[in-house]
What we know:
Helices cover 18% and strands 30% of the residues. With 372 residues, it is an alpha+beta fold.
Amino acid sequence: MPQPQRLAVPHSAPSRAPAARRDDLADRRTPLIRNCWYVAGLSADLAERPRAATVAGVRLALFRLRDGRAVALHDRCAHRSFPLSRGRVEGDALVCGYHGIAYGADGRATCVPADDRAAARSAMRVRPFPLEERPPFLWLWPGDPEAADPALIPAHPWLSEPGWAYALGLTDIEANYLGLHENLLDTTHFSFLHAGNVGTRAYANAPIALHVEGDTVRQVRVLEGDVLPGLYDRAMDLVGKPVTRSTDSRFVSPGFHAAHAEVIDPEPAPGRPARYATKILHAITPIAQDRTRYWWAIARDWRTEEPAVTGMLREAIVEAFEEDRLALEWIRELDDSDALGAIPERSVRPDLGGLAMRRIVARLAAREGGHD
Length: 372
């Protein structure tokens, strides 16, 4: 097995970005990665009725068995392709709403009302998909079931362990999911697209360190002696106070990005913490080439018993992610409609993390070699 690659890019590195061949970089036309765990929905949303989901272009019907276990089947009845998510749950079976054919958790028909022959039942099968529940999320693997190792599901203990509080939300984006991954690794845009909310002017020039290890990318940015932006200052009650702020952005997989943010107050007031940890989690699920379903959470280990703080953070995050949504959709619209066609991309130093991510996804897509 090849050794992990480690690459550090100090702030003093030459500003010239390395040249890259286009076929080395994934883009919006690269086939969606299916051998990956993606969030298909929220645990809390799966109750008595089946729910429809689409993951990497695969249509799914999700439902619960009587013991509470969550199950995913292909959302097409084997008889006439009626969407099973439009049916109903009876006991441990998902019943098609068109002709009443019932399917168990393994996708095999347990009842064919119009034909009671065993041969008719055995002929009716739909594909089951690996589905794992890690509250608050339902994680689905749309690719090769033999490769679906639950140990590969990204950890998110900050949403379940004591000592943390979080806000959870969903944003739908009519653009390719790779643009969102690149956006999350590009912390420079905080200072401009989210000026005053997530970024400050000085943050754009903060030193960057990049680490590429196997199929993951980690980019760290640290700024000392600057005041906090609107996302944090009122919530932390540190308005106007110089602090040290770090952002550790991680491309974990095509379906998950985690940002570990830390604020250090060098001179905390009596009774106040010196360190504030915040986790911003991004579950990124491609629905189609240019449609992305984006579940996000912002968790914190400070002022955890104050719902008003959760509300402030939610409001600020929703504002920032709406700005991201618009930016990515505007880029897609221009790419689709400009009569001059595509233009060569130009990259700068802070883009190195995004370029590394796109190389990884191109490699993963080549490894999968197309879809069935």
